[in-house]
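Problem 12. The chain below contains 405 residues. Write out its predicted structure in token notation.
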Amino acid sequence: MDDSWPVSVIDGRISYAGDIRQGLHPAAAAAIKPELQRLAQEIVAAIQREVPEYAGPLRGEFGHGIRTGVEQALRRFLNEGTPGETDAGRIYHALGRGEHRAGRSLDALQAAYRVGARVAWRRVSRAAAAASVPVEAQHELAEAIFAYIDQLAAESVEGYADAQAVEAGTLARRREELLMLMLAHPPASPGTLDEAAVSAGWRVPRRVALIASAPEAAARLARRLSGDVLYASDANHGYVAVPEPAQLAAELAAAARRYRAAVGLGPTVPLAAAVRSWEWAALAMRAAETGQMIEAEAHLAQLVLEASPDTLAALREQALAPLSEETTASRARFEATLLAWLRHRGAQAAVAAELAVHPQTVRYRMGRLRELFGSDLEDPDKRFGLELALRAPGRPSHGAGQPQL
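Solution.
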């Protein structure tokens, strides 16, 4: 008898090449058949006696599954299944799922399989010997019994793994839904949040930090942060919520080298302020660059600019209209020079140092800018508008002098 049964997975199901019961000596099969009913009872009794988890009465769905599983296993072993048993393997798959639902590991069920194999071999070997089954055939019978039990156990392992996967997927969805509920408009009631948190297996914290990231980075970022972190993503954003963050600053500093992200206000806030914190994080995220983790509260002026993109675009078009006839390269130089001049309050040496050009170049460019903008450069309100326009997020990058956070 071949001592190997190749295993493959087809459509997520375990499939065995060949039948491990084929080739049994006819006398062995004949000797076993009259023992099946008593053997099933003996196996169930031994399982209850020797496996503590099953010591009580085997009632309900699980008890039915154990009894049916033993009986079906014995019939399948002798190819004695009834025509209605189209997929007996589902019984052992279901036993594995049931163990996961009961909150147990597979240890008890695996122990039950081992007990069943031992009891089966003890009774079957006596019956085979009494029927004068040849010794070689008895050895083949032993190999077949234990290999068959391994096959049944593998089907239960598959059922357990399937149940784990389903639970993990369900829990992940509930946690994503909880996070989006925390950030909903209008805000969800505390009772609704508490109920969703229980369903998601998440302990509601007193304070939370909200982080915005690129959609593809949310899960990876969450795994680098300590605590029971929630995360979700959509087409535009990654959402991360860190409860009671004790070492947030240090952990974010370490993650900043790898991710583009922004932290909301606080950076930790009461749960009721999570929506506002997230909005700040999302605004700050627009200004963050790859490999940069920024805190919203450290860049409030930039957030003000980010908060009204349409108004800012109109200001940019109006304030920088004198440069509309310049070439792209020329406009880039003039914008960089004008912004540096505004930032350094007209100090030409400082402007030249920032732009890495000769002071004479600065004087030339500023002369040209005075021709284009006229008295606007002397008007404080006009200068303020110009600086806002030049610092505006989303302004095309024209080279040196592009403002950074």
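Discussion. The chain has three domains: 7-167, 205-307, 309-391. Students who got a different answer should revisit the alignment rule from Section 12.3.
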